[in-house]
């Protein structure tokens, strides 16, 4: 799945399959300007910053069990969001410090370090990387991902895929080659 935020005409948090199909709104009320999003892949939670409502909130992948982690004026200065173990990590754009927020007790906030310039934050750790099983976009014997000549996108499951073409090309009638 692909998770993303939008605050155009109607602010929301959405999810869809990697090929863009099965687009679903998971949060569409009491939300104004969601600017950053992070996933807890193990427990299947979606966290986001809303800089207009000055809050950090969480829901499960279906948009249920919504909770506010923390609220306050400091939220409007946060950019980027990552989750690891018991904490959320973000950057305060005012003083360029990395903040650690306890995701179970939003009042426990600590500044960890200062940076020269940052707009995003990611946590890379072996435990956050899920094991990859065989999937529909694996390279075939001819070196083509999922048998697609250009781009292979996973669809509704790891067993299904959709082929797409680079800009300027169209998908052939075989659904795999680009012309």
SSE blueprint and pairings:
Elements: E1 2-6, E2 12-16, E3 24-27, E4 34-40, E5 45-50, E6 55-60, E7 67-71, E8 78-84, E9 87-92, E10 97-102, E11 109-114, E12 151-154, E13 161-164
Helix content estimate = under 10%
Strand sequence of the main sheet, in spatial order? Answer: 4-5-6-7
Q: Please tell me the overall pLDDT.
A: 90
CATH H-level superfamily title of the largest domain: TolB, C-terminal domain
- Rounded to an integer, what's the Rg over CA atoms? 19 Å
- Architecture (CATH level 2) name of the largest domain: 6 Propeller
Low-confidence stretches: none
Organism: Dasyornis broadbenti (rufous bristle-bird)
GO molecular function: Wnt receptor activity; Wnt-protein binding
LDL-receptor class B repeats: 1-43
Protein name: LRP1B protein
If you had to describe this structure to a student in words, what would you say it looks like?
By secondary structure, the chain is mainly β. It has two domains: 2-123, Neuraminidase, CATH 2.120.10; 134-178, Ribbon (Laminin). It is built from no helices and 13 strands. Strands 4-5-6-7 form a four-stranded antiparallel sheet, with no helix packed on it. The chain is elongated.
Question: Which structural traits does this protein have?
Answer:
mainly beta, elongated, 6-blade_b-propeller_TolB-like, four-stranded antiparallel sheet, Neuraminidase, Laminin, 0% helix, Cueball_EGF_LRP_Nidogen, 179 residues, 2 domains, 13 strands
Summarize the structure.
One of its GO terms (biological process) is canonical Wnt signaling pathway. By secondary structure, this protein is mainly β. It has strands at 2-6, 12-16, 24-27, 34-40, 45-50, 55-60, 67-71, 78-84, 87-92, 97-102, 109-114, 151-154, 161-164.
